[in-house]
Amino acid sequence: MTGNITLSCEQVGELAAGYVLDALEPAETEAVRAHLDTCTDRHDEFAELGGVVPYLAETVEPVEPPSRLRSRVVAAVADDIRARAGAAHRERLAPPVPPVGARSPARAADRPVVAARRSPLAWVAAAAAAFIILALAGATVVTQSELEAMREYERGVAAVLDLAARDGSQTAILTSDEAGGAQGIAAIGSDGRLLVALRGLSATSGTQVYEAWAIAGDESPVPLGDFRVDEHGTATFAGTAASLDELTLAITLEPRPGATTPTMPIVAAGKAAPPPG
Amino acid sequence: MKSTTGHADDVAARDEADGKILERIARGEAEALEDLYDRYRAIAYGVALRVTGDASVAEDSVQEAFIGAWRNAARYDRARASVKTWLLSIVHHRAVDAVRRRRPTTELPAADTAPTPAFVVPDVWPEVSTRLDGEEIRAALASLASSQREALELAYFGGFTQQEIATRTGTPLGTVKSRMRLGLVSLRRILEGGGERPSATLLGEATE
After folding, report:
1. Which residue of A10, A21, A24, A49 to mutate against B (max B Cβ within 10 Å)?
2. ipTM, two decimals
């Protein structure tokens, strides 16, 4: 997994072929990238080997994709334009999210975490940013793994907000009964895509997993999928849920995967609703 | 004998036109992204299909790649690589990502079930200049030592990591790394040399 891997120039050179072919373990890829970002050595081997890789793609026969793919791409671009216009508009109207200081984690995509169009989630976005600021301010040293966990959580929050900003999406704020317990945000797209970002969870151990449930009205809870949590207490989860009215999302801690009914207590829950207005 | 100038001219003209399309995309012109799609949809889909082996997953990967190109057009640097290389490297990366997420044993970069992984525009390097066309490059690949070709194919088209290749083929990791490197080096010499595979002595290293 991610960790504090620092590589020497020689080690990086040995990984060059794997790197240009995208054939390294994730932690190795990260470590090579980190080295290249800061190393003063030219590392010519990357250009020498990397310059060959595009020609592997040239050996592939072109295949005409179905015409629906074009429509999907066009629609996705249109969505993106709308989402940015909406976010930019909201940013102008709402107070800005406090800027993260010089040690802010780099964003994976070049998009800031902006307040979503839906006001119920706006405070969560600010809280998510604040969480990161406080964590950075409070710690004298942030370990690589803590930074990674924060980045991952931040990406998860950004993904939820993106989905929440689309037409037809529902959102939910998940809270727990106990003070200082788990909390999170979720979005369900009109296509049933579900994204959840959570924090304040206890770590799972052994075969334990957290399970997400969809509870529609009076019906039995339907399991949506499980995930594990490490000592950082944050989690991001993707799945599908029927985009119904009156849907409650709940999270429970299960002794093992494959639960068909939730084990009490409910760790966090929230009711999904379309945006107000 | 092939006309070398003809092929090079075609590539230069293509790069010029692509560069203009990308500038328009960076300015936010949605139609320019459609132009890019129409130019490269077949090769993009071909690569994605080859890597993922699944039409539906390949479609998703191509869609993600073009949206990625849309969002990251401002970061494209023409000094680093051609638009085609840049775009196909994004497609390839999305396809490999998709394949790995669906493999139960692959080590994932973050918590087990993350949302669509954060979009990464992979690094690219300037393509070796060559006058070989697709068919000739395919022949060049076929002419490599089979162990090297297998390592390259498992990595690039199979989306396997070096560790996974080592396990699958029952080969020491160091040998896999060496085969990948030698395969790329050999291929480079052939591409630069215009189609002839240099002899082992010329390569100056064991073609293991």
Report:
1. A21
2. 0.88
